[in-house]
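User: Structure please.
Assistant: Input sequence and predicted structure:
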Amino acid sequence: MHSSAPKKAMVLAAGLGLRMRPITEKTPKPLIKIAGKPLLDWGLDALAQAGVAEAVVNVHYLPDQIRAHVAGRTAPRIVISDETEQLLDSAGGIVKALPTFGTSPFFLVNADTFWIDGTDPDLLRLALAWDAGKMDMLLMLADPHTAVGHTGKTDFLLAGDGTLARSGGNESGLIYAGAAIIDPAVFGGAGATSFGSWTSTTLGAGAFGFGFGASFFGGGGSSFLGGGGGSGFFTSTNRTFSAFVFSA
């Protein structure tokens, strides 16, 4: 176990699941089963394997089902972030949960994607690649040509020196794989309101890539990253950040 790996995490599970209807009309998307296991459990099990002790799970749509599902879980221990009255989207949901994380980096996982690890757990590989001295966030990416269930465009391009840029849908780009390590300072001063997506269309100069292999399954596509639409958290707050990329 990597001793410096984050011990806390957030799992984004509050979405409406509109793209999976009618399946999600009575069941929230995080509880849809893939290979006999709810999507939410794929992420929580990966976090437990990486040594995470506590995970915040935000809820909004059919929240009682998710509450009941995680009620007895101890690895990781679950803290519910209640967005029943107002869906805060990904950025606002993270900001609402920030007091749980203090000043330490945390894992961020989408509840509608999962991956099959290779020899070593990919979240631990992500943690090994994390450099707190120069990174604000470290994103796990996947090759869209080997991903299952992804129907959208690519998200990022990696230059020869490892720097990161928006792909603009370029076919040679990579897609966000639904997992990251985040420095809470990125959201400093922000309020827990509905921002939309938490990423920016303008990347800081410190954006790099790391290459590893895994099989990625995307149940919710790449809309979490805002699709380059320019309406995300960092655009609305005029922020830039240093994003380093782990390629799964």
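The chain has five helices and 14 strands.
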